[in-house]
Amino acid sequence: MRVLSLGAGVQSSALALMGEKGEVPKPDCAIFADTQAEPKAVYDWLEWLQTQLSYPVHIVSHGDLYQEMMDVAEGTSKYKFLNVPVFTITGERYKKGLLKRQCTTHYKVLPVNKKIRELLGLKPRQKVPKDVKVQLQMGISYDEMVRMKRSRFSYVTNEFPLIEKRIRRHQCVEWMEKNNYPKPPRSACIFCPYHTNTEWRRVKENEEEWNKVVALDHAIRHATKKSKDEVFLHSDRIPIDEVDLSTWDELGQPDLFFYNKDDFGQLNNCDGMCGV
Questions:
Q1: Among 24, 91, 126, 132, which residue's CB has the most CB atoms within a 10 Å radius?
Q2: What angle separates helix 197-204 from helix 207-219, to the nearest 10 degrees?
Q3: Residue 78 falls inside a structural domain
């Protein structure tokens, strides 16, 4: 069985449509793991995309990630910790930190795998037969090769058709235009700490979504087990509505793949499940 991990962003959408045109192996189905926190533009796009595909798109969800973070902040969640990689500072020494990213696993990887098992006819905790193999197409482009990873499940083999064809993200957009498709939106939770300033500005264009981001940023300020820690959505570690959202170009500095210029030097990896 071949499955497309559909993020409903640029790369995975292009990959989905390439399959329809026979330019890459066509999947038997696609799975969209919904955090219930994507921009409205992504849900609108997904609805349109489904009309263009001859194979089913299964929508699965672990729950509402935005509400979970709010509940953690308010102390009403069954979870004690934020599972999103938000930025922290500690006490008077201004020691910087970054919480561990667990949202991709809980809201993307595991729900997709759960659906794959369901499609295979497996019961919960039932062992996968040795002769059962699944190819999982990932919408990672050639310019993001660093995001390539093996599947954590032995019966699943991750495939990277865009990388095999050396297709970069901008070429996905060009392919969509060449084939008279509209340009897909950026796929990521509206409050993702990995947003660049350009992406934060895009969120801000939607007043309702921006107000939710601001409310969340203020709510999580002290939502860690360390009482001296303060938590922020933006790497500048100040309230999101006070951040200067100028881009690197506007600041006269080199453009970086990972905008959040903190002291970690790590990329927005997300197991190739987000932002595609």
A1: 24
A2: 120
A3: yes
**Mean pLDDT of all residues belonging to the chain:** 89
Distance between CA atoms of 225 and 81, rounded to whole angstroms?
7
Residue 271 lies in a domain: no
What's the Cα-to-Cα distance from 155 to each of 4, 116, 143, rounded to whole Å? 15, 11, 27
What is the distance between the alpha carbons of residues 30 and 59, in angstroms, rounded to a whole number? 9
CATH number of the domain that residue 192 is part of: 3.40.50.620
- Radius of gyration in angstroms for the set of CA atoms belonging to the chain, rounded to a whole number: 19
pLDDT digits (tens, 9 = 90+) for 160-181: 999 999 999 999 999 999 999 9
- In-domain check, residue 8: yes
Which residue in 177, 165, 172, 167 sits closest to 187, CA to CA?
172
Into how many domains does the chain fold?
Answer: 1
Matching residue, tokens 């996905």: 172
Summarize pLDDT for 90-102 with one digit per residue, the tens: 866 567 888 888 9
